[in-house]
Amino acid sequence: MEFDALPLHDATLSAIHVSYEAARCDLRLNVVGGAAFQLVFEGFSALRFPRQEPWGRSCSVNTGRQVSTEVYEIELQSGDALQVEARSWAFRPLEP
Predict the structure, then answer these.
(1) Separation of alpha carbons 62 and 74, rounded Å
(2) Cβ atoms 11, 30 nearer than 8 A
(3) Other beta carbons less than 10 A from residue 89's beta carbon
(4) Which of 30-34, 42-46, 54-58, 69-73 has the lowest mean pLDDT?
(5) What residues form DSSP beta bridges with 10?
């Protein structure tokens, strides 16, 4: 599956976990329908998680897109654009 095709629209971002030592970043998302998923980035070299909320308060995703080979962006409905620069990513159900 392509990053841009992930079912992220209207998903709720519930948490971000970063392991600096492992260079791993996990975004926990509840997609439409209530299923919990994690978007895992391995081998990150840069993270940007602004919370300025120029469009108002929201934890819902507007879009997700791959900006370049190793740069991924998740735009929230708050207007904030989260960016992760990483070697690889995976999208999988969150294990209980």
Answers:
(1) 8
(2) yes
(3) 19
(4) 30-34
(5) none
Phi-psi region of 56 (alpha: psi -120 to 50; beta: other; left: phi over 0): left
Rounded Cα gap, residues 83 and 75, in angstroms:
9
Q: What's this model's pTM, rounded to 2 decimal places? A: 0.93
Q: d(Cα 96, Cα 93) in Å, to the nearest integer?
A: 9
Angle at 62 between CA 17 and CA 58, to 5 degrees: 65
Find the Cα–Cα–Cα–Cα dihedral 94, 50, 69, 38, rounded to 10°: 0
- Per-residue pLDDT band at 96 (split at 50, 70, 90): low
Contact between 80 and 52 under an 8 Å Cβ cutoff? The reply is yes
Q: Which residue has the tokens 């997609």?
A: 31
E strand or H helix at 12: strand 12-19
What mean pLDDT comes out for the span 17-42?
96
68 bridge partner residues: 71
